[in-house]
Design brief:
The chain is mostly helical. The protein has 7 helices and no strands.
Length: 206
C-alpha cells in the first residue's frame, strides 16, 4: 500500500493552483498585468487564500522531499536547495509584499530565493540519478524549467509579472507529478533489492 506521504506532492500542487486561482477570481486580478501574484496577499478578499496557498504547500512539499530522499538517490545539494526554497516560500506566505519597505524587501528576497531554488533542486536531483532513461527524463524536465525561467524573466522585463511567475511554477509542478508517479516504483526497488534502483527505473520509465 502506498504511504500517505507519497501523495503530499500532488496535494501541494492542487492546493497552490486551487487557492491562487480562487483568489484571482475573487479579486479579478489581471494575470497579464504588471503586478506580481504577491499582491494577492495585500487584498482583503484574497490575503488569507494567498497565505494558505503558499504555506500549506510548503509544508506538504517538505513531506514530499522526505519521500523523495528516502526513495531516490539524492545528495545534499538537492536537500539544501529544496529546503531553502521552501523556507523562502514560508516567509513569503506570512510577510506581505505591501506595507513598509522592510517587509517589501523581505518578501521580495524570499520569493527570489524560492524561484532560484527550483532549477537548482531539479538539476541536483537529475544529477543524482543513475544512468538510464529516467535520468534523461529528469534532465529533460530540468531544461524545461530553465526555459520557463528564461521566458519568465523576459515576460517580467516586459511588464507581465504574473505569467512570468506562473510558468516556472508550472514546470516545477510537472516535475513534482512525474516524480510522484515514480515513487512507488522507486520504493519497491529500494525495499526488495537494494542496489537495483537503476534497473527498476530503467525498465519502468523508458
Amino acid at each position: 500500500m502506498r504511504r500517505i506521504g507519497q501523495f503530499a506532492g500532488i496535494a501541494a500542487v492542487a492546493t497552490v493552483w486551487g487557492t491562487l486561482l480562487l483568489a484571482t477570481v475573487l479579486t479579478a486580478f489581471d494575470l497579464l498585468g504588471p503586478d506580481p501574484l504577491s499582491y494577492l496577499g495585500t487584498k482583503d478578499r484574497s490575503a488569507a487564500l494567498f497565505a494558505i496557498g503558499l504555506a500549506v504547500p510548503a509544508m506538504l512539499l517538505a513531506v514530499f522531499h522526505h519521500e523523495v530522499r528516502d526513495s531516490f538517490p539524492t545528495g545534499k545539494g538537492f536537500t539544501t536547495a529544496m529546503l531553502v526554497g521552501l523556507a523562502g516560500q514560508m516567509v513569503a506566505a506570512f510577510v506581505p509584499i505591501g506595507g513598509d519597505a522592510a517587509a517589501h524587501r523581505v518578501h521580495t528576497t524570499s520569493a527570489l530565493v524560492l524561484g532560484a531554488s527550483l532549477p537548482v533542486l531539479m538539476w541536483r536531483f537529475a544529477a543524482g540519478q543513475p544512468a538510464s532513461g529516467w535520468r534523461r527524463l529528469c534532465y529533460g524536465l530540468f531544461w524545461v524549467e530553465v526555459l520557463a525561467c528564461a521566458v519568465g524573466l523576459h515576460l517580467s522585463s516586459r511588464g507581465v509579472a504574473p505569467l512570468a511567475e506562473i510558468l516556472p511554477a508550472a514546470a516545477f509542478h510537472v516535475w513534482v507529478l512525474v516524480v510522484t508517479s515514480a515513487l512507488p516504483i522507486a520504493d519497491l526497488g529500494r525495499r526488495s533489492r537494494p542496489g537495483s534502483l537503476p534497473r527498476v527505473h530503467d525498465r519502468a520509465l523508458t
